[in-house]
Amino acid sequence: MLNQKLQPQQAIPVIQSGGIIAYPTEAVYGLGCDPDNLAALNRLLILKDRPWQKGLIIVASDWEQLTDYVDFAKMTDEQMTEAKSKWPGPVTQVMPAKASVSSKLKGSFNTIAVRISAHSIVQQLCQSLGKPLVSTSANLAGEPPALSIEQIEHVFEHQLDAIILGELGNQNQPSRIIDVLTGQVLR
Predict the structure, then answer these.
(1) What are the tens digits of pLDDT across the range 3-52?
(2) Contact indicator for 63, 116 with CB cutoff of 8 Å
(3) Burial 7-26 (b: 16+ CB within 10 A, else e)
């Protein structure tokens, strides 16, 4: 693992083969992998020193990419309309998870945290991959998230499969997190 620096389209085979990447998001660098690859999820959690019980966020390029992960039948029409009104954008929403979703993604919850990003690199990665991407801040658990490639390389020295080149978005802090069912702001 060489922390190779790639353009977004070059990262797709890395992700499909179980690799972990760092990539720019709206506010900070994220770490990502295929949300359906259990070995990659385990490796990512170990790399971050993050307890699986906390769950992970997935980012998507559009609403349809969430259908394998979110149980929309457990949401009212009003909740669906409200959720859609916040996207694409820097808002993560906690939604009912389908029973088939790995506990490595949803943690010890029956929900999953999802975001449809407006960031061009996240959009490009998810569109090219044809599915969502795991998105957790590029840091060790409890530490500040990385804001530069240099910080990523310092923290994850040669432990990542690729770092995606590109600029961070213009947000000052990681995405706000809202529970769709209750409207409660969690972060």
Answers:
(1) 789 999 999 999 999 999 999 999 999 999 999 999 999 999 999 999 99
(2) yes
(3) ebeebbebbeeebbbbbbbb
* Phi, psi angle pair for 97, to nearest 5°: -90, 145
Whole-angstrom CA distances from 165 to 5, 19, 69, 182 are 6, 16, 28, 37
d(CA 31, CA 100): 23
Helix, strand, or coil (residue 85): helix
Written as one letter, the residue type at 127 is Q
Phi then psi for 123, rounded to 5 degrees? -55, -50
Place of tokens 């020295």: 157
**CA atoms of 18 and 20, how far apart (whole Å):** 7
The predicted pLDDT at position 173 comes to 84
Query: Angle at the Cα of 33 (from 125 to 99), degrees rounded to 5?
Result: 105
Give 114's DSSP letter: E
